[in-house]
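#dry-run=false #mode=assembly
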Amino acid sequence: PPTAPAGLLQHLNPEQYAAVTLPPRHVLVLAGAGSGKTRVLTTRIAWLIQTGQVGPGGVMAVTFTNKAAKEMLTRLSAMLPIPVRGMWIGTFHGLCNRFLRAHWKLAGLPQSFQILDSQDQLSAVKRVIKAMNLDEERFVPKQVTWFIAGCKEDGQRPKDVEVRDEHTRKLIEVYQAYEDQCQREGVVDFGELMLRTYELMRDNAALREHYNRRFRHILVDEFQDTNKLQYAWLKMFAGPESAVMAVGDDDQSIYAFRGAQVGNMADFEREFRVDQVIKLERNYRSFGNILDAANALISHNTRRLGKNLHTEAGPGEPVRVYESNSDFAEAQWLIEEAQQLHRDGVARSETAVLYRSNAQSRVLESALFNAGIPYRVYGGLRFFERAEIKHALAYLRLIENPNDDTSFLRVVNFPTRGIGARTIEQLQDAARASGRSLHQSVGAVAGKGGANLAAFVALVDAMREATQGLTLREIIEHVIEASGLADFYRTEKEGRERLENLDELVNAAEAFVTQEGFGKDAVALPVDEQAGAIAEGSPPAVAAVDLAPDAETGEIVSPLAAFLTHAALEAGDNQAQAGQDALQLMTVHAAKGLEFDVVFITGLEEGLFPHENSLSDADGLEEERRLMYVAITRARKRLYLSHSQTRMLHGQTRYNVKSRFFDELPESALKWITPRHQGFGSGFERDYRAAWQRGSGLGGIVGAGRQPDTPPAWAAPKATTSEGQALRAGQGVFHNKFGEGVILTIEGSGADARAQINFGRHGMKWLALSVAKLTPVES
Ligand code: ATP
Ligand code: MG
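#status=ok
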């Protein structure tokens, strides 16, 4: 192979080396977790560029999560002497966004099109259902949204969907009306980003030829999770001269429920005439016990392509298993453990807390928040989805695009300005009748309501006027004040936190500007070497961010527009806390491809993980097992598995048995760090499990074999009640006024000792232990 700079290929084993230096042709790398697939992919990009085989503009690399894409850019920038930001490396959605920004005209979109996140999408669908006078019981907005997303993932427009019955016929009408509405408002949802890009590539030969010639190398990480549309999309971008490298692991396919197709791997082999499948068998990530656990677990799946994975790293520490009696206690334990690790010198950012469902993060988050431990949540209850943030963003979006009806409706009467439901209905009727946006239809409403609407439009216009030429920070500060949001929250009882969040928004914008290099020299960044190559809809130049400069004017998209895109696409991934050493919280899905020194997998309970929705069929269970395999294989050095006997979920206390996955792990690799309760073993547990599976009430069984908890060593009493009884975090207590609660945190000692207690209905309270009359109860 062409000579590479010294050192680039040094840390590769022979199979990896072969994959990295393969002559340009299609190849599939099929290998288990931690075997270096992503390393091969990034090193190949670096090698291709460093040996002069392709310019940075000739490479496209796709992955699934924002965090993984960032990771790839980071790894790459360490290997390349050139700036990597401008390269086409990102998520499917990120790349589609970039493509459509460059070719908005050809794609039939307004230049300042906005992206709907899933919340916006749902409310947009609701509006359509309402406008069509359909019954929300029969046309459940969530289900309709899924239907539309599913159609788009299958590449189907309303006219392509097969009419099976009357209900589908109506659904298709809703789909059509939703599309019209989005088009009118100049907004696109996530599925639309993909489909619109795919269709434009399919239908515009000149554009397709351009990109086909341009992308000489296309590399796809996590290929096992591509869905039908993504695969078709890929085939559009890959030209006769392109070489595609697909990298994946069938054991880590975790999106089948959303239409991902492991079958794409077989199709890829066949359709791209792949004559070489590269396998990697050595795991470089984890110690032996962790890998043993992963291997043993996944061996319970039947449909596998079959791969071996070994490590030469030695067994390392055993996998620690912890059982708690409540999710609060679990969180408390986790915090103590994480704090100890931190004191021992483990960076917080090297500690990940994984969970199966987003709902689980709430308890963890509030415990972390109260303990003052910095943390970041990826995905989940996201910063940009909070009401006050969405209000502010809506004003900002209206500045960019006054026809964005979703944003218009969100804030037209927020803060209140005397615009009632009647007025809005009139406005919507007028807009519908004329096929125009709400903004454009304001003149059609008469009387007081009309005047108030006009005042609202004037307010937004004035904000647009006043923010011309301001920095992003100044724009946001101005809008928060001028919109009346700040004043509104200043007078509201619970407004303080919301005001703080709005400040965070300003900080997030600031961080965004710094990170994305939106400074003065942004325009000077390298521009695509092939610019001007085709006449029609000239190709995008390479900009500092995922947003290319406007194809016609060459103008870089405004920082505001870029920030709004970022808010929709990356959601909470980039909060203002970025850069701080913080504990990493995320769902297992979001952890794909990542690795950490320490991993906690929490909530390992039947019904939760494996998830109850999956238990009815074998496919579902196998997917859960792959998910667990992904979770385990994120850990480099230390792995914790925890489960809890009770858990508050969706407002109910659930009594849980530990996950069946524990039975599938080799006992030799595990260490139980909670004493296993006598009587909580086989017989009792069997009853428990049976009761769970019957779905019947568990009340009768609960008290039965239960032993009082022996506090583990770390949870030695830290404080006492005013009567001198020992108290510890995780313990149940009774208070005369607030009733039963659970201690979350204890701070201070002696007369100063105070505890934070969750009293359920009465909420969280801080109580001075020397004063409060608390009685310990069996929780
Ligand atoms: P996953 O399936 O989880 O995405 P992967 O196959 O992509 O995993 P990588 O993330 O590329 O694996 O690699 C796992 C770890 O092993 C990384 O820290 C990587 O730097 C390291 N690694 C890979 N190959 C080697 C090697 N030849 N020598 C030393 N370390 C390696
Ligand atoms: Mg990887």
